[in-house]
Amino acid sequence: MHLVKYKKCYEKNINDYQLQEDQLHFPKTPAYHINQSCHDENCHCILGFDAHDQLVTFFVLDRNSDYLEHFATNPQNTIFFRSFSTDMRYLR
Length: 92
Prior knowledge:
By secondary structure, this protein is of the alpha+beta class. The protein has helices at residues 11-16, 30-37, and strands spanning 2-5, 43-49, 55-62, 80-86.
């Protein structure tokens, strides 16, 4: 597996990404988070591709989470792992 930061050239991969119905509520779709990250420079959308260059997983790295105040860490050294999902065709 290799991880890459989202760029516009991966839009087709995002459009082909499939989630189960219960995944649409939480963690929401990758497209939703990509749109949100356009307005937040602290959010980084990460795509996980398998050895055949199929997009199998998605998550967000967030440097400015609402949860930061609940952890006794240095904000400059903290990054949150959020919105993890796996394309339903690759589950199990």
